[in-house]
Structures are given as structure tokens and as C-alpha cells.
Amino acid sequence: MAALLGATALAVTAQGALTAPAGAASARSADVDFATHCVPPPIAGIPPIDGTTTARIAVDNATPKVGDTVTVTYTVVKPAASNPTDLALPADIMTPTGKVTLGGAQTGDITVAGPKKNDPVPGRGPFPSFSMTGTFTVTSPGAITLSPGDYNIHTSYILELDTPCTVTNPPAPVSETVTATDAGQPNIRAISLGSASGSPGARVTVTGSDFTPGARVTLAGRAGAAQTADTATVTADGQGAFSGALTVNDRATTGVVAYEGDSWSDSKGAGPAAYVVIDDTPVPGDSQKITARVTAGTLSMSQAGDTVDLGSVESGSGGTADGDLRTVTVKDHRGGTAGWSLTGKVTDFTGPGASIPASKLSWTPACATEQGSPSTCQAGSAGPVGSAGATLASAPDGTRTGGEFTVDAELALEVPAATPPGSYAGVLTLTLT
Question: Is 358 helix (H, G, I), strand (E, B) or coil?
Fold first, then answer.
């Protein structure tokens, strides 16, 4: 998700120094409330629960192009349901799955799934907040709305139990909107799953659309960026649609894809649609099951300060005021396949009745990659920053990305000879996406 993460104030005087602090801001989607009908497991012996769910939807790209894949995070801030039994539930026994409903320029449902992670839940206590993720491929330009949909809370403790919660009056209110632009000839292939979770060996129905009519399509499981051994084949009909079943055995599965040809291709594939395997294998007697998790982190940045002193330039002579950008540290702990880009743009430098154009500020970027990082940082090109902006540093997409990076830049402000004496200040804003 594009987030405005930092700004650095720059000022120069005919005799002077850089001053002024910078602010920081971040974007977030809206929390929405909607009526929910939850059905406790029959063993609980209690009637359905009609309550209110508070949730929000977030995306990693709010301005995609047609054909782009958008990652969606569905967070249930406050579930309508609670622990239906008097028995306290320990930590990390809940596996949530659900759906996100698309509207506007593109319609349909996205399956989402979350990790087996939760705080302890007291008997009859409320279920804690949880998040689920999934993806969809943009097939139409325009505004696409995202609303929270039905969700299910699976608990694995003594018994395998489900508490499904459905939206009483679908669709729920819109929590997020993305605006897609046309990209010419996009890949609009799409798939949906009949279920977002299942036990090892369960068959999941995979439905596809907009594939090549008559094409042989491979259905396959994904564990992160790697394909699993779970595959099946189907044939698209005369309209490019199909419906088939995939048996999922690999417990590491995180999604399902479908593609034409002998191997996965972004141009001829669809997905991954989120899917989670619920390991319900009984623990043998006198044994203990030991598990561990690796959870996804965030993409973030920090600055070593928010002011830069470019020194002084003599009035009437002009020249270049030099300085160094405050060091920026980028941390990519998402653990996925996406890269990142750090860009900057600057305002005009305003002073006493005059200004220095933003185009007069240039930089020479440098970027260092911390040892052990899967990605390699690439410095942006030297040149003007300007009000339109320029790239400071980036890391490309890959089969495995992430790590920590240190970004610096030499700054140079060209001060025209006719600039009146005084203090001139501009703000350099950095954006990490």
C-alpha cells in the first residue's frame, strides 16, 4: 500500500541554514460495522448469534492497472461471535477464513485466509481480532469497491470446530476502494475457490473464467512462491470457463493457482487464491505436537532526522548549496515476492518575496543492502528531484524478497545569482510503496 512515510524540510539562506521539521502521515482504510449471523458448533448447544461485526479492508496497491494482482487484507477488528463454551481456549488454535466482495467496475468474491494465531480466549469471552489475506486480478478499469464478507472461525482444541458468520444483509458497507486504469491488453483470467480451507487430502472446487477457449489448464497448490506437488488438469469450455477439483495434501499450502501451458506464467495464469490446510492429524498417545510460526511483517521506513543544512551561498554570485540527506532505513519484513520503491519530490524553496524552483534541487542517491537480505537495493539515478519526483532507491520483485536497506543521497541546490538575500525553505517528501 502506498504510504506517505516521511518528509524532510530543506532551507537555505543567502547566509543561512536548513531548518524546519517534517511531518509524517499514513493512509488507512475505513472501519465498517455490519449485522452478522453466526452459528456456533452444535456441540455448544446454544442458538445462533446475531450481532455486529466491525471490520476493515486494506490493499497493497490502491491504483493498479488492469492485469495487476492486488493483495487484500481483511481484518475483523471486532467479531460478532464469542467463545461458545465455558472452556477457556489457549493461544494459537484459531484459523480464520473468509471472503471479500468486489463491486463497482469489477464484481465477485475473493477468498482470504489467516494464520493459526490468536491470544488466549476465556470461556464465553469474545474472540480476538484477526486478519486474513488473499489476492485478485484486476480485470476492468474504474473504481472497484471492497466490502467485508462472510467469515469462519475454525478452532483446533480437543475438537475441530467451526463458527461460520454470514453477512445478514449483503453486501456489507464498502471499506476500501481501488481505482484501476486500463493497461491495453491485460490478462483477465480469474479463479475462485469453493472453500478457503480444508483438511489434508480435501478436494477444493476451482472455478475459472476468461481462459483461452479449449485450453488445457493446470490447477496447482502454492506454498508461498513455490508450486507444490498437488496438481490437476481441466479443459476450458468454448467460453474459456471451467470448473474442476484439486486434492490438496501439502500442509504448507497457502494458495491455489491455475495456468495454461507447461508451467506457471503471469501472462497465462490466475491466482493465487488464498487457501489454508487445517492440520487435524491426531497426536499419538504419550506425544506432544510442537509447532512454530513465521508471521509476515510490514514494509516500513525511518529517517535519522528531519532537517538538512545546505549551508550558505553569497547573494549576487549564486552557486551550489550542498548537503547530505538524512539517512533513511527501509525494512521489508513482508516475506513475500513484491519489491518496493522509495521516491521523493520537493516543493519550491520559498523566501522573502522570491523562490528557488524545485527543479534546482538535485541528488546523487546511494543504497546499501544489509547482509543476509534476500533482495538487493538499487540506487536511483542522479539528477533533479523536482516537484514531479524521482526515485531514490528500489528493490525488484522476485521469488523471495525482503531485508533491510540503508539509503543516502548527496544533495545540491543550484541557487541563481539574482536570488535576493534571505532564508529559503522547501520540503522534500519521501514515499515508500
Answer: helix
Q: If you count them, how many residues does the chain have?
A: 433
Q: Contact, 362 vs 383, CB < 8 A?
A: yes
Q: Chunked in runs of 10, what are the mean pLDDT values of the chain (433 residues)? A: 35 33 42 91 82 92 88 91 77 90 92 87 85 90 92 85 91 92 79 89 92 92 89 92 93 91 87 86 77 77 86 81 92 83 90 86 93 91 88 84 92 87 87 87
CA 412/CA 348 separation, integer angstroms? 14
Please classify residue 42 by burial: count the beta carbons closer than 10 Å to its beta carbon, then call 0-12 exposed, 13-18 middle and 19+ buried.
exposed
Fill in the DSSP letter of residue 127: P
Collect all residues with Cβ–Cβ distance below 8 Å to 182 and sequence separation of at least 6. 65, 66, 141
* Half-sphere exposure at residue 356, Cβ-oriented, CA atoms within 13 angstroms: 32
Q: Is the separation of the CB atoms in 76 and 130 below 8 Å?
A: yes
What secondary structure letter does DSSP report for 417? Answer: T
Sign of CA dihedral 166, 168, 169, 172: negative
The pLDDT tens digits of the residues spanning 169-196 come to 999 999 999 988 886 667 888 999 998 8
DSSP state, residue 345: E
Q: Cα(378)–Cα(369) distance, rounded to whole angstroms? A: 9
Which residues, including other chains, have CB under 8 Å from residue 26's CB and lie 6 or more apart? 3, 4, 5
Look at residues 249, 213, 251 and name the one whose alpha carbon lies nearest to residue 231.
249
Cα–Cα–Cα angle for 286, 291, 294, rounded to 5 degrees: 175
Contact 112, 97 (CB under 8 A): yes
Counting Cα atoms < 13 Å in the Cβ hemisphere of 350 gives 5
In CATH terms, 32-277 corresponds, of 3.90.1170.40, 3.40.50.300, 2.60.40.230, 3.40.720.10, to 2.60.40.230
Q: Considering Cα of 273, then 182, then 106, then 432, what sign does the dihedral take?
A: positive
Alpha-carbon radius of gyration of the chain: 26
Question: What cell numbers appear for 274 in the block?
Answer: 488464498
Pairing of strands 383-384, 378-379: unpaired
- CATH 2.60.40.230 spans which residues of the chain? 32-277
